[in-house]
Design goal:
alpha/beta, D-Maltodextrin-Binding Protein, domain 2, 2 domains, four-stranded mixed sheet, globular, disordered N terminus, Bact_solute-bd_prot1
């Protein structure tokens, strides 16, 4: 993938298979038969780590490390299960706190002098704000630096670096350029998975014409508490990559061109051909304005009731489907690559989380080290038996991933031919990427504001140098 930018209890530890219940909490069925051998069976497989890696941090028995994150249920259970090898090895206890409002609340807690020990930061732009405005995040310890240098492509380390200092190790990785659909609905209607953007738009028009308003080609929702709007920004970013190209995309998020550059407004309008067209959205949920209030985690559900045909969402949406939903090419739902302008071009939107520490106690540094290691990446894969998670860590064993869909996502991340760009809103200053862009895209749906007006308002919010 080309991205531009002595508290040790025992030497080896098997990850307990006690998270079998996550198969019920996670929406996607692991044993999907997607492509012959998804590998998931709803039960976590044992994964052993070498506890000696954490001996240098001393006796951590009974020590506590607080973690603050946006990773809520259903993913929260497997996230916490992935910490068990570290807890068993060291005797330390991880105190997990998750909130969808974490991006907004973390700066408040920092300013109040009450930060967590570690935050799982979903945006490099937020990391930059925490470093530059509050001087709150501590540089990564040498053990973390070593892990990242050996386990990750340099570009990922750059995303956790601010003004030449490395602060935050990458954690999970996301592939966002997917469209979810019902294979059986497509098959029964005689529709083919589109290979180009024009193919997809022609399919959209055909579905709209054939169903005469009974269903809609697309469904979408951007409601996400204090983070409302972010799924809509993903749409715009994916379209900028396709209509304007990677070079313009880079100029956009670095503000070498203004947010309301004509090429960006053109991308808004191209997305609007789907998202602002009453004939094309919002299947099973309402009109265009309902996108602003439809919860993002449920916005794809109308596919299951036949009210909607397609829903653009990242690989992790596999975890959002209701209990019992089968994910696979012959299942209830599956996903295809969001097409580009030609079948030869494969621009791909990616994202991920980063580990920022606000204290440097030995137990905190030990946990940082674990999270930046191949130990954690493979333990997380083993602890996610229903799938919907992947990482760009070089030493992640694909065999530990639960489904062929996850393996496909990992292949995309690892493929040198993939021209990937990190989520632009996550790279922009937090005042834009985690504020005015979210608000603007929500208003774009809620009040039918024009692309030009929305982009212009967001440009006005860009921090002055």
């Amino acid at each position: 993938m080309r991205i531009q930018k002595s508290g040790v209890r025992r030497r080896g530890l098997a990850l307990a298979a006690g998270v079998a219940s996550t198969a019920l909490l996670l929406g996607a069925c692991a044993d999907t038969g997607d492509g012959g051998g998804g590998g998931g069976g709803g039960e976590a497989e044992a994964y052993e780590i070498d506890c000696s890696a954490y001996e240098e941090f001393g006796d951590l028995e009974g020590k506590k490390v607080s973690v603050y994150t946006t990773i809520v249920e259903p993913e929260a259970e497997t996230q916490q299960a992935s910490y068990e090898p570290f807890e068993e090895c060291t005797g330390a206890e991880i105190e997990y706190e998750a909130s969808r409002e974490m991006e907004a609340q973390l700066p408040v807690r920092v300013q109040a002098g009450n930060p967590p020990d570690i935050a799982i930061i979903p945006q490099p732009g937020l990391l930059q704000t925490l470093v530059r405005e509050y001087d709150a995040v501590l540089p990564a310890p040498e053990q973390v630096v070593a892990n990242v240098d050996s386990g990750w492509a340099p570009e990922w380390k750059e995303y956790g670096t601010v003004d030449g200092t490395f602060y935050a190790a990458p954690l999970g990785s996301n592939v966002k350029s997917f469209v979810w659909y019902s294979p059986s609905m497509f098959s029964e209607a005689g529709y083919e998975v589109p290979e180009t953007w024009d193919d997809m738009m022609a399919l959209t028009e055909e579905i709209a014409a054939n169903n005469e308003g009974a269903t809609r080609p697309w469904c979408a929702g951007v409601e996400s508490g204090d983070a409302t709007g972010w799924p809509g920004t993903d749409w715009i970013e994916d379209v900028v990559l396709r209509t304007a190209g990677p070079d313009v995309y880079d100029q956009w998020y670095t503000h070498e061109i203004p947010f309301d550059d004509p090429k960006i407004i053109e991308a808004f309008d191209a997305a609007g051909e789907i998202l602002k067209n009453e004939d094309h959205v919002n299947g099973g949920l309402g009109g265009v304005d309902s996108i602003a209030t439809a919860p993002w985690g449920e916005a794809g559900y109308p596919i299951l009731t036949g009210d909607c045909w397609m829903h653009r969402a990242a690989n992790f949406y596999a975890t959002q489907w209701p209990e019992g939903t089968e994910v696979g090419p012959d299942g209830d739902v599956y996903a295809f690559y969001l097409p580009s302008m030609s079948a030869e071009e494969k621009p791909t939107l990616v994202a991920g989380e980063f580990i920022g520490a606000f204290t440097d106690r030995p137990e905190v540094q030990a946990f940082q080290t674990y999270l930046s290691s191949a130990d954690w990446a493979n333990a997380k894969a083993a602890a996610t038996p229903s799938g919907g998670w992947v990482s760009a860590h070089k030493e992640l064993d694909p065999a530990n991933l639960a489904t062929d869909f996850d393996k496909m996502s990992a292949e995309i991340l690892a493929d040198e031919a993939t021209v990937a760009r990190f989520d632009a809103s996550d790279l922009m200053p937090a005042a834009v990427g985690a504020d005015s862009f979210w608000q603007g895209i929500t208003e774009w749906f809620a009040s039918d504001a024009s692309s030009k007006d929305i982009a212009g308002d967001i440009e006005k919010s860009w921090p002055k140098d």
